[in-house]
Amino acid sequence: MQAIYLLLAVVIGFFPLDAAGNKERRTVGSVITASPAAPTIVIDPGHGGTDHGARCKSPYCEEKKLCLQTARLLKKYLDQLGYHVVMTRTTDAFIPLHRRVEIANQSTCNIFVSVHYNSSRVESAHGIEVFFHDSKEEKNRASSSRKLADAILGKVIRRTSAQSRGVKKGNFLVIRETQMPAVLIEGGFLTNPEERVLVKSRDYQEKIARGIADGIDSYFKARWKQASD
Fold first, then answer.
1. Which of 159, 183, 190, 202 is the most buried (most CB within 10 A)?
2. Are strands 84-87 and 40-45 parallel, antiparallel or unpaired?
3. Alpha helices in the chain (DSSP H)
4. 159 and 87 in contact (C-beta within 8 Å)?
5. CA angle, corner 167, sides to 184 and 114, nearest 5?
6. One domain, residues 137 and 178
7. Cα torsion 209, 215, 219, 225: sign
8. Is the torsion defined by CA of 37, 39, 45, 48 positive or negative?
9. Running DSSP on this structure, what letter comes out for residue 189?
């Protein structure tokens, strides 16, 4: 009889443990663990600390906070896609521009993406644009940066339905001095009242972050396809 009770206890105890195990496997399976060979991406949330970036009233917002919020969402989506991600800042800290470049160059990352929001003296200005550095000395890097910018802008516009202001050449230090393909995205104008309301919302930031992640993924898939042809 004691043997029967022991057997029942084992059988009854088995099911909840198995269910918990299955649940755990589903939870773990929802995020793809990056393989050692997966590309590394440096995400650079613009501004931070004493560098507030663009600031606007009614409703009040600071560019540095929006950049960090969007970058954190972007990291989450890239993690889910199986990429390695390095952040130049994860808190409201001031990081000098040259230090951001050092972080990227020392990480031996594959691409660098700087996240910003825009401002203008013209209140009606709106839309999303992506910058790359068109270096004549580093033509291959410039070409790859342009392809990355094109891929990101197309996917972000598809996600947000915002106006595309195009891919543009820029001489920003963080995309000029980095050694890998690098872009800087301006996710909308804080000086435009309608667009400011949008970019302050979690839903819109998620659309921008997903669009950037989609563009990065598309960029690497195109490179892998080209390499295999």
1. 183
2. parallel
3. 2-29, 63-81, 97-106, 139-160, 173-176, 193-200, 202-228
4. no
5. 5
6. yes
7. positive
8. positive
9. E
Pull the structure tokens for residue 132: 């790359």
Report the distance separating Cα 132 and Cα 149, nearest Å: 7
pTM above threshold 0.90: no
Same domain for 121 and 224?
Answer: yes
For Cα atoms 144, 150, 151, give the angle at the middle one, nearest 5 degrees: 90
Q: In whole angstroms, what is the distance from residue 203 CA to residue 78 CA?
A: 17
- Gap between the terminal Cα atoms of the chain: 69
* Each residue's pLDDT tens digit, 113-130: 999 999 999 999 999 999
| β 40-45/111-118 pair status | parallel
Going by C-alpha positions, the residue among 51, 72, 94, 53 that lies closest to residue 191 is 53
Q: What is the pLDDT of residues 201-211, one digit of tens each?
A: 999 999 999 99
Does residue 221 contact residue 159 with C-beta atoms inside 8 Å?
no
**What is the rounded CA–CA span in Å between residue 79 and residue 134?**
29
Per the listing, tokens 């000395």 go with 137
Domain total for the chain? 2
**83 in the same domain as 8:** no
State whether 67 and 174 are in the same domain: yes
Which residue range forms the structural domain that includes residue 44?
A: 38-228
Largest CA distance in the chain: 86
